[in-house]
Amino acid sequence: MVRALRTENLKAALNERRVLRGVSLELQKGEVLGLIGPNGAGKTTLVRAVAGLIPHEGDIFIDEEPVASLDRRERARRLSYLAQGAESRWPILAERLVALGRLPHLGPFMRPGAEDDAAVQRAMERADVMAFKDRPVTRLSGGERARVMLARALAVEAPVLLVDEPTASLDPYHQLQIMEVLRGFADEGRSVIAVLHDLSLASRFCDRLALLHEGHLAAFGVPGEVLCDANLEKIYRISARRQKGERGEIVLPWARL
Ligand SMILES: Nc1ncnc2c1ncn2[C@@H]1O[C@H](COP(=O)(O)OP(=O)(O)OP(=O)(O)O)[C@@H](O)[C@H]1O
Question: Which atom of ligand 1 is nearest to the CA of 195?
Fold first, then answer.
């Protein structure tokens, strides 16, 4: 297995509050890694630190290169990020918004070429948003807009994709579709870190899970192990039922403890 990304003792503070307390994890090529944990555990802070959006201590490597050695454009080509609840306030047409995902590939004064157009089409087809391409994003439903924003992140065609709660506002059909899109993206040899709250989707579609709790990495491994009864009880304060799936156990949150 080849590593796509790793963090070493990653720490971050927000307004002097220590939020990440030394997280070391790694992402393999071809892997979907689910980043899970209760509200406030530090998941968004971790992906924002990896995306270079907040100051941090510790090291981040992409393809074994320290990200600190990459310029902004190169970092944006290597790592695509979809923020939690990403929105556009401007009535830009959906296709134009997706095309913004190609900006890291364009030099100053360069116009998009055939390869950029093809990447935009691929991303829109994957996210199932071709039907909205000529509509202003401000006139789409929340779930439709969320898929357009995902298409923008996919259009970068970066080796590493970071997505923060990509299924949050989607109906069950599109939740499954987006998880299949992320799976397909990784199966092509790219890598995904997805912040997820839905433990059944996480256990079904992710290769491994990183469980954050109070800024620490509480568990890291295959879903069945990370979502063991003891972790569910201690960290999530729930019990679960389990079902056999293609990749191991699928965990269905069942009762509060
Ligand atoms: N700007 C801020 N200043 C101070 N503390 C913050 C700030 N933003 C977030 N926090 C705190 O940092 C902690 C981690 O927040 P973060 O958003 O990373 O959690 P999360 O795991 O993504 O949570 P959720 O599942 O609720 O989205 C929380 O306790 C939160 O209250």
Answer: 22
Rounded Cα distance, 224 and 230, in Å: 12
The tens place of each residue's pLDDT in the chain, 257 residues long, gives 789 999 999 999 999 999 999 999 999 999 999 999 999 999 999 999 999 999 999 999 999 999 989 998 999 999 999 998 887 788 899 999 999 999 999 877 788 889 999 999 999 999 999 999 999 999 999 889 999 999 999 999 999 999 999 999 889 998 999 999 999 999 999 999 999 999 999 999 999 999 999 999 999 999 999 999 999 999 999 999 999 988 788 999 999 99
Please tell me the distance between residue 21's alpha carbon and the centre of ligand 1 in angstroms: 13
Ligand 1 atom nearest the C-alpha of 38 is: 25
Rounded to two decimals, the ipTM of the complex is 0.97
d(CA 27, CA 189): 12
Is 129's C-beta closer than 6 angstroms to any atom of ligand 1?
Answer: no
Rounded to whole angstroms, how far apart are CA atoms 5 and 167? 23
The ranges assigned to domains in the chain are 3-256
Superfamily of domain 3-256: P-loop containing nucleotide triphosphate hydrolases (3.40.50.300)
How are beta strands 208-213 and 32-36 bridged, if at all? parallel
Distances (CA, A) of 197 to 65, 108, 134, 167: 30, 39, 32, 9
